[in-house]
Amino acid sequence: MKKVFVTLLFCLLIVGITFSAAAKTTTLTFWTFQELHQQFLEKEVARWNENNPDNQIALEATVYPYDQMHNKLLIALQSGVGAPDIADIEISKFANYLKGNTPQLVAFNDVVDPLMGQMIKARFDNYSKNGNYYGIPYHVGATVMYYNTELTDQAGVDIDDIVTWDDYVAAGQKVKAATGKPMTTVEVTEHWSLYPLISQIGSDIFAEDGSIILDNEKNERVLTFLDDLVHKYDIAIPTPGGFHHSEEYWAFMNDEGAASLMMPLWYMGRFVQYMPDLKGKMAIRPLPVWEEGGNRSAGMGGTGTVVTIQSDHKDLAKDFLVEAKLSVEASHKLWTELGFDPVRWEVWDDPVMSESNQYTDYFKNEDIFGMLLDIKDEINPTMITEQYPQAIDLLKKNVSFKVIKEQSETPAEALKEAADELRQ
Amino acid sequence: MKSIKNFYQKFINSKKVAPYIFVSPFIIVFLVFYLYPIISTIIMSFQEIGFGEAEFIGLENYKKLFNVHYKNALLTSTNYTFWTILILVPLPILLAVLLNSDKTKFKNFFRSAIFMPALTSVIVAGMFFRYAFGEQASTLANSLIGLLGIGPITWLQDSIPAMIALVILCVWRWLGVNIIYFLSGLQGIPDAIYEAADIDGANSWDKFKYITIPSLKPVIIYVITISVFGGYKMFAESYAYWQTATPNDIGMTIVSYIYQTGFNNFNMGFASAIGITLLLIVLVVNLIQLNLFGLFKKED
């Protein structure tokens, strides 16, 4: 009797195992440093599971602090164990993970190449090496100018008349005279003022062959311009708190501290979240140009989602990410839920992109995406090399700080010093 | 079966083996978590490290040490160590004497109040201090100096105020701990000595100078030694104020530099080389310090 019972139990077990294999739920682990990304991908998993009943995914997502996540992932990849299937890597850290001859990330070319016609390719190039794409971007990060129209109106400035940076300076002087407030703020402990302008003017930190051009004439012109905004024209101040993500700045700006701000489009979320009092006053416009006909934007920042070679489900993870971040539906949600400008520009003029949501309600623009569509071809790619993390470090810590805040070096000296350090 | 058990009992109970078993936890922890990492750090400091690949590059990493950031880090750490010791030895002695005196009221309250900060996490406390040292006129630090008629200061973007902010955070956190050390030292001084001094007509200052301080010397040496270590290995305070990038290195300590090089820029070899120099620096500073206090002199 006992024997029969045991046999029966055994059979049941076998059936149970086969049955659960048939339902096929694959667990994918995901590390990120941004809770919004986790929430977004979890919703995307639900959508995937609806569409793929026989290929279910369970996402095990963990949100770590920014630094901790990048370090943990680096160590896991370096030691060869413990990495997740999917991870977010921020752009300024990405090069660390492509160091050496044995990339620890899986190339996306087979799934991404067919879509490239509808994508902003420059954003994929940021996460590529030797022609292989290792990361899937969330957004374009088009840099734009945010104007506080209440202040510009007070000064009699029409922001649509601001075409060149010279116009911008003239408008700034009017604003300063009429309101006593600075036209803008310049970051001194991060790089979101200097680097977008460097890219916009058609220069970069590295040339295409990887050599360092940080101290070229164009960059000197950009840094001199930023310095002049503060010290010559007297229409800008160093950002309170040092950078545009500091609590000091948010308090300052929310209190109508400055009339405008240059940041990428993803900064919209910060306005909505941290500067509620400016609701209905802010308008978004393309950047003023350096020369007539010049670029009116620059692609900045970003996060590449990667699949690690330690994953047991590489193909599934890749398919899922393409669906969750690049498909038409996903692109719509990136805008409506996260306020990101999706890299699939093809969807930018879809009706859903101009429907009202928390972002369109906040800003005075009629059609944010119409404007983006206008400037989509005016975004230069940025060159990223192994030294990129170090270069960004230097931009953050030394270059603008020494010139604009400490005033201990001239623009040329500061750029040369940083460039020389990178050349060593 | 029985013989195995017998052997086992004999083995465990034998006077030769038992001591080794008792110290083995420490030995194992030491070997795995201290000696192995030290040796592997030394090896890594001569290597260029990639993913699963390591290449020996001789002294390249050490040559890179001659750069301005390393110099800045070294200066910041040394400055910080100097100022923290300068404050965190005399001040706790003074407070310990007060707290030890019979005349002080609410002693227990003050003892626990002063000790409390040591129990908080540096990061949590650092968040508070980060905001307290914000640059608007309304922050805590700027309001306080405003009372003295000094204008608002950009605390965390200027080297001297930044050092002050670091030292204040350190003093706030470690004052209570050092007071505990000195209190225990004070309680070890026999009352008879003070009574004898009273009879000889010594005043309070004389008693402090000729009895208290000399009796506390071993504690003082101990506190200075751990403060040298603590000062040079400081990282969390700097991280709390500036995360990983401090403008123009004003708050970057040697350990922050290791962290940035190793993790932020993924240059493990160079980071290891910096780590080795830190070990040597702390060793040398402590040897000099202990030598000055005469710790290596033979007892007469």
UniProtKB/TrEMBL annotation, chain A:
Which superkingdom is the protein from? Bacteria
Q: Which Pfam families match?
A: SBP_bac_1 (PF01547)
Keyword list (alphabetical) reads: Cell membrane, Lipoprotein, Membrane, Palmitate, Signal
User: Which N-terminal stretch is annotated as signal sequence?
Assistant: 1-23
Coiled-coil segments on the chain, per record = none
Q: Which PANTHER family match?
A: ARABINOSE-BINDING PROTEIN-RELATED, POLYGALACTURONAN_RHAMNOGALACTURONAN-BINDING PROTEIN YTCQ
User: What is the name of this protein?
Assistant: Arabinosaccharide transport system substrate-binding protein
Q: What is the lineage of its organism?
A: Bacteria, Bacillati, Bacillota, Clostridia, Halanaerobiales
TrEMBL record, chain B:
PROSITE patterns given in the database record:
ABC_TM1
Q: What is its main location?
A: membrane
Q: Where in the cell is it found?
A: Cell membrane
Q: Where are the transmembrane segments?
A: 20-39, 80-101, 113-133, 139-156, 163-183, 210-232, 271-296
Q: What is the protein's membrane topology class?
A: Multi-pass membrane protein
Any GO CC annotation of this UniProt entry: plasma membrane
State the UniProt keywords alphabetically: Cell membrane, Membrane, Transmembrane, Transmembrane helix, Transport
Origin: domain of life:
Bacteria
Which GO BP annotation is one of this protein's? transmembrane transport
User: Which parts of the sequence belong to the ABC transmembrane type-1 domain?
Assistant: 74-289
- Pfam families to which the protein is assigned, alphabetical: BPD_transp_1 (PF00528)
**What's the family?**
Belongs to the binding-protein-dependent transport system permease family.
Protein's recorded name:
Arabinosaccharide transport system permease protein
Q: Which organism is it from?
A: Halanaerobium salsuginis
